[in-house]
Amino acid sequence: MTIQVEVLPDDLPGASVLPHLADEAAGHVGVRESLQHLTLVLDAPEFEGVGYWTVESGARPRVDATLYGSPRDLLVLSNPDFGERVSIDLAEVGSGRRHTLDRMRADRWLHRNLLQLQDVLSGTVDPDRLPSVSTCAFQNCWDVWTDGRLRQWQRPGLSLAERRRAFYRAFARGGMLLPRHWDVFRDLWEGRMGSQEEILSAAMRLPDIH
């Protein structure tokens, strides 16, 4: 069973490829059977590095979901100055340069966000039960656990080194990271924490980043 996927804006470079990638990723992370229709709204640069979900009831037991994201997480300049490949946003599309979908980055972004949608639909994570003061720290810990699972399953996701750098950038703002903080990271990455309560407990043991 495939899911219906709509991409907005529909003239986004690579828009015709994204439905296949999204359906494939949904199958890999176990959320395909729960989804009836998926809309990818990729015009929000402020969501770079993250995704924002809304979910509506569909034909039971399946649901309709919308994922808002940044084009910077999926597109690159294929022929920028000096031969570099750099991230861009929609404001630059149509500026005379050729923009393309970076399939590897898109694959990783879709797998991470669809696995987290599966966590929500399965009840493993309930965002409504999160203390508002812990949202940012919880999300960063959830991201570590998510990419750790993808790595174990040999699915597209951030590597250990990439996720460590992101973890450091997030929590070093709240103070120096100590060995006990990296123990938390390792427990999340290796899947020794897997419930919302455990992830929230992990976040509370890390430097305050609010």
SSE diagram, text form:
Blueprint lengths: L3 E5 L9 H12 L5 E7 L10 E6 L5 E6 L6 E3 L21 E3 L1 H20 L12 H18 L7 H12 L7 H11 L6 H9 L6
Parallel strand pairs: 1-2, 2-4
Antiparallel strand pairs: 3-4, 5-6
Helix pairs in contact: 1-2, 2-3, 3-4, 3-6
Report on this structure:
It is built from six helices and six strands, in the order E-H-E-E-E-E-E-H-H-H-H-H. The strands form two sheets. The chain has a four-stranded mixed β-sheet with strand order 1-2-4-3, covered by helices on one side. The chain folds into two domains: 4-121, no CATH class; 126-204, no CATH class. Helix 2 (103-122) packs across helix 3 and helix 3 packs antiparallel against helix 4. By secondary structure, the protein is of the alpha/beta class. The protein is globular and about 45 Å long. Mean pLDDT is 87; it is low at 82-87. The termini are far apart.
Q: Report the helical percentage.
A: 25-40%
Radius of gyration: 18 Å
Tell me what portion of residues adopts beta-strand conformation: 5-15%
Mean pLDDT reading: 87
| Biggest beta sheet attributes | 4 strands, mixed
Q: Could you give the order of the helices and strands? A: EHEEEEEHHHHH
What is the number of domains?
2
In the predicted model, the low-confidence regions spanning at least 5 consecutive residues are 82-87
- Classify the secondary structure makeup into a structural class: alpha/beta
Count of individual beta strands: 6
Query: Helix segment count?
Result: 6
Overall shape: globular
Distance between the termini: 42 Å
Q: Strand arrangement, largest sheet?
A: 1-2-4-3
